[in-house]
Amino acid sequence: MRRAVDGESGFVIGAHLSIASGRARGFSRAVDEAETLGANALQIFTRSPSAWRARSIAAAEAAAFRTCASASGLRFLAVHAIYLLNLATPDAALYERSVAALIEEMVRAEALGAVCVVTHLGAHRGAGAKEGAARAVAAIGRALEATRRVGLLLENSAGSGTTLGGRFGEIAEIVDRVADERVGVCFDTCHAFASGYDLRTARAVDSTLQRFDRIIGLASLRLVHLNDSAYGLGSHRDRHEHLGRGAIGSGLAALVRHSALAGVPFILETPKTLDGHRDADAVSLRWARNARRGEEGS
Questions:
Q1: Would you say domain 13-292 falls under CATH 3.20.20.150?
Q2: CA 291 remoteness from chain centre
Q3: CA–CA separation, 255 vs 230, rounded Å?
């Protein structure tokens, strides 16, 4: 694998931004903030990520958001599913609630004109990875049947407990069994590092991406969540850190410049405050752009 790309040509990068606001613009607030940051990619929740119930999105509100997003410089828009979903659980009631919520997320994302929905797979809770994967495959199939065009990206996990997706092979099995072009993978750098995939050097990045390609296939990689990690390699602890300030460090610079990721969008999910100030996203985006150009961090 070639390890670097030059400059910022084709660099699609942004952040997960909040839609919460007292202003009337509602969902469009996130587009406003993305434009202020100079971002050309955006990820949002369409509802509280820790609640099952959500207010409906009126047709006029969705149309206004689509118009706003279209008029902006955005080249990529993702919706992140709520955290409560568990597509691998053996609990029948929770499983059905999760499938229904995933379908709802995808319908809402389609209404807003999003490219994809990003979801965690959940945990098998002792039933075994094979059983958990089978449930996830069935859930995804039902969600695809209930929607028309929006993509679904399966996010890798930190591999704690019985959570699925900590190993590339677990994700590959599900992607292969679903066998639908609408289904791809979101690669979270913090989660990968926490689950044991090294990203601390250019050589380590190259090796991990080669493993991803052999097991899953880089053609399935549709999005990178660009996060440093507060904990060490193989910690199985999911805590994001500011770019270049965590346990991965400068390896993230090699990752954003890697030729294998040249056409893949990047979304930051790093903390919103830095050194007591609330300009963390601006600082992190500058770090990533400088790294893309081959310059040193922020």
A1: yes
A2: 20
A3: 18
